[in-house]
Amino acid sequence: MSTWIRTTALALTALWLVGCSGASQRQLAEEAVTAMGGAEKLKGIQTLIMSDGTGTRTKVGQAMTATGPDQIGELSKVTETLDLANGRAAMDYDIKVGDFTQHRHEVLTKFGEGEAAKPIGIESIEGVTFATTPSGLFSWGTQNSPAWLLERNPLSIALAALDSSPAGEVAQEKEFDGKMLKYAKGKTHDGEDVGLYFDPMTKLLAGYEVLDTEPMLGDVNAQYFLSDYKAVGDVQLPHHIKILKGGEPFSEVQFASIVANDPKAAEAFAIQENLKPQAEIATKQADSFPMKLVKVANGVYQAQAFRHHSMVVEFPTFVAVVEAPYLDTQSKMLANVIATQFPNKPIKYAAVTHPHWDHIGGVREMAALGATILVEKGHEPALKKILDAPHTHPADDLAKAGDKAGKMQVYEGKYEIKEGNQTLQLIAFTGSPHVEPLVVAYVPSSRVLFQSDIWFPGLNLPGSEAAAHLMQSIQKNNLKVDTMVGGHGLIGPYSELTKAIAAMKK
Do domains 22-269 and 289-504 have the same CATH topology? Predict the structure, then answer.
């Protein structure tokens, strides 16, 4: 039998099966779009405001130990705004993790006029705001960045399925969220493969699965579960969305209200006048992020960023960085600043103080730059998982670095870097109520100590149980400290800490 005859026979058989066995995959997508209100009305939605949301963010990266369970973030007052017509998205919410609470606002918007406008990011925490490139946005909302709201929202997925699901293939049955649903294949508007699940009773889109590449998790199969469809004007949209990534809960949200094409949506993307200089830089610089080096002592600097800082220690022929927080974009900006300040001195080491995600989000970039990642043995499982995770969708700098990438070096208890007259010691403190263990960085020659999350130097804050443990551990290890540098906060005298702890005892 010729190839042409065989191919034709297979095609005719497929069409016959469609007619005899049920709907085609394309028909499922068509029926879903019809059940949601029809293609014309769905395409007419330019903006969505989803508000009064409550839920959880399970993956916040705040585990007490490297192998222990993560804490769960409680989300409230969640508002997510989509500007589908202009490629903008915003997230506004409160999050509570244990005793820690924070109001956050992350925006993917555009700066400039007309077609010349370019994407930028705006991040605000407790009213303190900065502008960055979109890759500089870090979120603890339902997604790790507002960009995901544009790429993974049900409306866009349903419309993309209408154009991409195969018309000549019979729909299958497949289990999804414990139910047998109709299954079809499709593409997102960006051409990514997506598996689509349809409720055979309501005909509505019940969920979808697609490959997501998360900054911390790497490549993960992501499943999006949709429910609680309600009328939004003339269309039906899900008000409850649950997300699993890598087979584990990631986030879940229930919205009380969704409004389409409300002019108020534009307010979420406004750029404050005082941010416009930063916004302009963000359109011109690939890795724009607030960053400056502030001298602490000879050869010791605090790299002050937005809210998460690093310490930089200069040696005769290289530089060591303590902590690579937030995201790869911050590490790239820090590398640029270091290259300007210390030409011909590579970043040889990047030390980890603890494996909370907001303090190691840039560690893959440091490894991509060739830095050896110094990790205390107790933190090894968490850091190994992050550094080894494949990132292909798209590939990040570490995935592209190959043999040039820096390796992870594990030590136990204490590690010392020494060259010429400069020494940097990494010391693991055990018993902290915040994380186990807690690594601090100490420069003996200038009696400077760096730590994260426990004490906020230079802000004259009250003491805490964790801060008291920090002071006791410093004394126990016979460290002579004059100056404290914070992963949060600024630079302050050690006496500021001792006074705060003494006040607690009164």
Answer: no
State pTM to two decimals: 0.93
Q: Say if CB 322 and CB 351 are below 8 A apart.
A: yes
Structure tokens at 72: 């769960």
The residue-averaged pLDDT of 488-497 equals 97
**Nearest-10 Cα torsion for 147, 149, 153, 155:** -80
Q: What pLDDT score was predicted for residue 22?
A: 67
Q: Is 195 exposed, middle or buried (0-12, 13-18, 19+ CB in 10 A)?
A: middle
Q: What pLDDT is recorded for position 1?
A: 46
Other beta carbons within 10 angstroms of residue 20's beta carbon come to 8
Q: How far apart are CA 434 and CA 450, in angstroms?
A: 16
Residue 126 has pLDDT above 60, yes or no: yes
The two three-digit tokens of residue 349, written as one number: 């080491």
Distance from chain centroid for Cα 470: 29
On the 0-12 / 13-18 / 19+ scale of CB atoms within 10 A, 480 is exposed
Angle at 377 between CA 371 and CA 379, to 5 degrees: 75
What digits encode the pLDDT tens for the residues 170-187?
999 999 999 999 999 999
Q: Which CATH number fits domain 289-504: 3.40.50.300, 3.60.15.10, 3.90.650.10, 2.40.30.110?
A: 3.60.15.10
DSSP symbol at 305 = -
Per-domain residue ranges for the chain?
A: 22-269, 289-504
* Tally of CA atoms within 13 A in the half-sphere of 330 that contains its CB: 29
> 22-269: which CATH architecture?
Clam (2.50)
